[in-house]
Amino acid sequence: MSFVTGAAMRSLEEAAFARGVSAEALMDLAGEGIAERLIEQFSRPGSAIGYVGKGNNGGDALVALRHLREAGWRIAIRAAFPEEEWGELPRRKLRDLAIAPEIDVPRHKGSGPFLLLDGLLGIGAKGALRGPVAAMAEEMATLRQNHGAVVAAMDLPSGLDADTGSGEAVIADLTLPVGVAKMGIASPNGVLRCGRVVLVPLKDLPLPDDSFLKFFCPEAFPGLLEPRAHGFHKGDAGRAGILAGSPGMTGAAVICTSAALHAGAGLVTLHVEGDFPPHLLSAMPPEVMVRPSPDPVKEAFEARHDALVIGPGTGHASQHYHASLLEFLASDERPIILDADALNQIAKAGRLDLLKSNHVITPHPGEFARLAPELAGESAVTACGAFVQKHGCTLLLKGARTLVAKSGQAIRFNPTGHAGMASGGQGDALSGVIGTLLAQGAESTDAASLGAWLCGRAGERSLANGPIATASDTIRHLGGAIDDWRQRRR
Ligand SMILES: NC(=O)C1=CN([C@@H]2O[C@H](COP(=O)(O)OP(=O)(O)OC[C@H]3O[C@@H](n4cnc5c(N)ncnc54)[C@H](OP(=O)(O)O)[C@@H]3O)[C@@H](O)[C@H]2O)[C@@H](O)CC1
Ligand SMILES: [K+]
């Protein structure tokens, strides 16, 4: 699904009106969808305060509040303007709610999450936040900073320009674009202000599919990760061969292989140089076959694996290991994911010519800078596009928002995940998951973007237990993330 400008969004709405759909019906669907997605994000009800401006963005928040109340949430409203100044639709939605806006700053009473619905401004925002809207945005920021409130933006964080993503907008923890994601969300400022992004599809609006940048979500990629047929056997689930871990960095191997298993691999084999430390063998999932060898690279490439994962924690392997890796890479046609130290070796040897269409590379910004120093200073989207024009591989560039690119295809933007996942080991888990998807036969950009979506969503599920999600938390929640993907397809 493409990202759209504010004007393109208005045209989509106009087309729906011309087909007889009313603005009120769209708002009702938007508010209901927002509430549904919010309920999914929290394990139990709490307090929800709707911050409303005078436009339709506030109407979305009021409809969502009504549905949250039905689901057991305590609700209240804070209004930037007296009701007489509101538009006709939000006024109607206030009447449906039958409560009056609060005069004072709300306090979180009772248990559960303290949720603020940012319905001050949507695609109607122009320029810097002004007057009472700016004051309400400030109030939300204080409650978020000092009182543990979580801000959920209706459509866009208020004040974010829908097209350029510029503006000192509200900082949200979660943004729920209505119908289609707006371009500004993918901009560098948008990424910093939107938090995680959960699309609210509207059945009366088509999902446009024509831009160079795509929003990656289950609703727009329904063919991926289909449920298994009853006759499915472990051969269908893929054999993943993993070259990970080296002296002092063996934990990466544990994480990567566990993630591969929890993503559903039929067989996972770990190839390591020398002996695997006995104390870590006990941490290894018993399902993993560990193959220590003086020449693990050769063994991994010669084994009948459907896909290979290479690089997590291999930085302290021998020179022979690294040299033979480059040699085998040149001739093997299997799907291969190259991560971390494998990428550093390629960069160090200046062998980017080895990167081919059967490779998925997953650098973080530091590793990417070593691979492509000439792209320093470019935006992530521009840098991805330029890199894959030169190299045939699939590129997954990690960052506050992960991007996936391949020559000749639109760049994909992954909306899941959060800052609490910024810790060592998450990349090792991601490469294990992508390795499994590749071993199961997924096309390389699908495997990479689905891997990023699933790991991000698993980290979101872990938020029920606190703001930090370790790689082990991500792995634990992978099954739930797979369920979420399947349930959101339409
Ligand atoms: N259309 C539809 O069918 C559907 C729309 N939907 C929803 O509606 C949203 C769009 O609604 P909208 O067009 O009413 O505009 P909206 O963003 O609420 O605000 C406009 C108001 O903001 C004000 N204002 C502007 N800039 C400002 C600033 N910097 N600082 C302060 N104030 C500022 C401006 O006031 P003015 O400057 O004109 O006095 C104006 O009154 C859309 O994002 C989606 O959420 C969904 O329900 C689906 C159906
Ligand atoms: K908003």
From TrEMBL:
Keywords: ATP-binding, Isomerase, Lyase, Metal-binding, Multifunctional enzyme, NAD, NADP, Nucleotide-binding, Potassium. (6S)-NADPHX binds at residues 56-60, 122-128, 155, 252, 313, 364, 428. AMP binds at K398, G399, A400, R401, T402, G427. The keyword Lyase applies. Its EC number is 4.2.1.136, 5.1.99.6. Pfam families: Carb_kinase, YjeF_N. The keyword NAD applies. Homotetramer. Catalyzes the dehydration of the S-form of NAD(P)HX at the expense of ADP, which is converted to AMP. Together with NAD(P)HX epimerase, which catalyzes the epimerization of the S- and R-forms, the enzyme allows the repair of both epimers of NAD(P)HX, a damaged form of NAD(P)H that is a result of enzymatic or heat-dependent hydration. HAMAP family: NADHX_dehydratase, NADHX_epimerase. This is Bifunctional NAD(P)H-hydrate repair enzyme. It comes from Luteolibacter luteus. The lineage of its organism: Bacteria, Pseudomonadati, Verrucomicrobiota, Verrucomicrobiia, Verrucomicrobiales. The gene is nnrE.
